[in-house]
UniProtKB/TrEMBL annotation, chains A, B:
Keyword Transferase: yes
Source organism phylogeny: Eukaryota, Haptista, Haptophyta, Prymnesiophyceae, Isochrysidales
Entry GO MF terms: S-adenosylmethionine-dependent methyltransferase activity; tRNA methyltransferase activity
CDD domains: TrmY-like
Transmembrane spans: none
UniProt keyword terms in alphabetical order: Cytoplasm, Methyltransferase, S-adenosyl-L-methionine, Transferase
GO biological process, one term: tRNA methylation
Pfam families from the UniProt entry: Methyltrn_RNA_2
Domain of life: Eukaryota
Organism expressing this protein natively: Emiliania huxleyi (strain CCMP1516)
Protein name as catalogued: Uncharacterized protein
Length: 249, 249
């Protein structure tokens, strides 16, 4: 019996990832317009070296420049067992370089959840913006955007259906009081920090955007684990809505 | 302000992991005896090639033989922000090879949560058992054990304090009904499947051990994400106990 709850995905391929996938065709990715409520997650990243932002990092040393952190966040944000979260967009805001990398689940193709494969896709996406030759598989869900957190907040808050109000901003923070479920149900944009948290400027920016704070765990966890918990809260909220909408016999 | 909730750890080192850590001294690890309630997690793994069980896999192709899966489980089981879960033991039962790898948080030293570094530690631990020369950093939390799931269940169920009854077995399963918190509070041993779930023989073994089933998510998730959610349930249960034990003013 296949137990999907506990299984691991291979999306669109078998064992070896980047090399095999390189021979396939991929669509050029661009973030999809807001429709029925995407899950937008912004990770605010600091101290990103120029070489990382230009895609000149080594795949066999991902902790250098904390590319491993970026890759883990991508894996946590997008992958489920044997599939990807099509409704999710992850925004990696590389603050020191005023650049944002987006991984859009709706356009992701042929990915494997290991850190090296995800880092290779990021590296290609970044390098093409800095003179490297584009390949057919350059994008596969990833896209490059100028500007950091401020640009993303402005852009994402404007992406809302006419029938709804502005999207709330939810900052995951150890001092949070808001419950995650309540705000997520309203289509909130989630903002997480990296190992350095948030600068005072980022805190001020989030406060001016009316961000509320929510806590996901009584313990200090990895950013990628916080993403898993945030998804879980949303999944449970959706499951409850689904149950409530089911006919009662 | 450092926000530990959202931060990423570097345990005992800075950026580059395996290479730098290789020059440090590490204790030879062996699983600690059961004392005040360790968190024991068993991941039942299938189709592990001989080359993986003998530590002859390549670090630049971890999806081959699903070493990436093992590494992600290790990262999810052990790491918190800026620290490790000292009370946790992860048992990777490589069923096809009748071998078990253990990562013991109480003896883990100088690790970084990236997949390659964790895989390198596994590779050394496995290779030493198959003729490779031991190095000072071979173990750092990892140990090698003959036998698979059956051996581990027998061993772990015997490790209990005199004052408590036998440790319950909790199988994470999509058809689970038990609540995770209730059983975890009783010092349960958690058993998770890999991408292939459980064989009929493993299901029978778990049933004969009186395993109860629990579900952690309404969606099918990666094994490593299920570990994050299981830890979270335990963390919240512990936090509640802590709150209940606090004096009320």
């Amino acid at each position: 019996m296949l137990v999907t709850l506990l299984s691991l995905p291979i999306v669109g391929g078998s064992t070896r990832a980047a090399d095999r996938l390189a021979s396939r065709g991929f669509e050029r990715a661009s973030p999809a317009p807001f429709a029925s409520g995407p899950r937008d997650l912004i990770v605010v990243c600091h101290r990103t070296p120029v070489k990382v932002a230009q895609g000149r990092f080594r795949l066999d040393n991902l902790p250098d420049g904390r590319v491993d952190l970026l890759a883990r966040c991508a894996s946590a944000a997008i992958f489920t067992s044997h599939g990807v979260r099509r409704e999710t967009r992850l925004w990696l805001a590389l603050q020191d370089q005023s650049v944002c990398l987006c991984l859009d689940g709706s356009t992701a193709r042929g990915m494997h959840p290991d850190e090296r494969t995800l880092a290779a896709a990021m590296k290609r996406t970044l390098a093409v913006e800095h003179g490297a030759t584009s390949r057919a598989d350059t994008a596969n869900g990833w896209s490059y955007h100028a500007g950091g957190l401020e640009h993303r907040l402005r852009e994402l808050r404007q992406q809302r259906p006419v029938s709804r109000g502005p999207r709330p901003i939810l900052q995951l923070h150890e001092d949070g009081e808001a419950t995650l479920q309540a705000l997520l149900a309203a289509g909130a944009v989630l903002v997480l920090g990296d190992q350095l948290g948030f600068t005072s400027g980022e805190e001020a920016l989030l406060a001016s955007a009316g961000a509320r704070r929510a806590t996901v765990s009584p313990r200090g966890l990895l950013t990628s684990h916080c993403i898993v918990l945030a998804h879980h809260a949303l999944d449970e909220a959706e499951a409850r809505v689904g149950l409530a909408a089911s006919p009662v016999e």
